[in-house]
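Q: Structure tokens for this one, please.
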Amino acid sequence: MHRVFDAPKERCPSRCGRIASADPAATRHQRCWLHKIGNVLNAVPKSMAPQIRSNLNEICRAPDRATATAALDIFVEKYGAKYAKAVACLTKDQDVLLAFFDFPAEHWDHLRTTNPIESVFATVRHRTVRTKGALSQKTAKLMVFKLVMAASKTWRRLKGQNQLPKVITGVSFNDGIEEKPASDHRAA
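A: Here is the predicted structure, written as tokens:
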């Protein structure tokens, strides 16, 4: 069974550790491409940013793992000598950046980024900080619940929700396509 935990580790290392330790073999991490692209672009001159962003998007939006890996290899070859820090930032997380290929293709847009998760938390954080500690624990929970419910009205519906039972039961996917178990039927 595969579970994906899509949260930036730098912001919640203890939570990621608790979730992974519950069942380490079944939990896969997917790093946020939006944040990773930002981190890579921070290591290069601004004049190179558009070209490098385009190359990074080729990796992120590749139709399959082989194409993404080939694009990543080209990126390393092209920029490795001049922008070693940017290349190291990208290659150190290669496996977790490409983990979304092990899930249904319909889910890839949702798995590539943590921004929808963070936008909900930002709304809640913004409101709770403004109250300056005037809430009891009970009213704080109620306010957070109401804020999340209000934010949920604008959420996008999950693409490929019919694939969720397969993911939960541990069906394997390769490059977004369900892997059928090989049948062992022999002719008599």
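A few notes: The two ends are 35 Å apart (CA to CA). DSSP finds ten helices and four strands in the chain.
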